[in-house]
Amino acid sequence: MAAVTASLALFLLLLGFAGGDAPSREVWCVAKNNAEDAGLQSAVQWACGAGGADCGPIQDGGPCYDPSNVQNTASYAFNDYFRKHAISEDNCNFGNNAAITSLNPSYGNCKLPSSSLANNGSFSGSESSTGFMPGENTSGCGEVFMRFCPFIIATHFLFIVSVPRIVFG
Q1: Structural domains counted in the chain
Q2: Range of weakest confidence among 37-41, 51-55, 86-90, 107-111
């Protein structure tokens, strides 16, 4: 009985670490360096339109207005969309024109706010999403698996520790 109690305590401790408050780092959703301008412009139009990103700062007179640099313009729109929706890799894709980075893309007077990424790899931010750019995969299977992975590992460990002690006394 003591072995089962000790195993249960260890299980709860591991579960606490898996779901605990991990230190975080700042991340941004930015345009990929190798993305075509036409693809970026199309993705910006979607993000600023149907996607609901606040694109005021990249309009004429805004602090991030730079009509000569599609990369910077797209990065601002992508990052704003990314921050307002479920913070996930799926929401930083834009037709494979964007990626998540830990390098601050802010420049001059244009400051792009960051999102938080826990060191365990999970994103923190808003849980609601209005959808993805047309043609994007919305399955989310990887996110669901990662939520249950610590539980599966802890349960497996509990089973391995408990069964021999119960069977062999």
Answers
A1: 1
A2: 86-90
d(CA 24, CA 119): 5
Neighbour-count burial for 14-42, b at 16+ CB within 10 Å, e otherwise? bbeeeeeeeebeebbbbbbeebeeebbeb
Prediction pTM value: 0.60
The pLDDT value given to residue 22: 53
- Residues 118 and 127: their CA atoms lie apart, in Å, by 15
Q: Is 153 strand, coil or helix?
A: helix
Q: What range does the domain containing 131 cover?
A: 22-139
Is the residue at 14 inside a domain? no
Residue 58 domain-assigned (yes or no):
yes
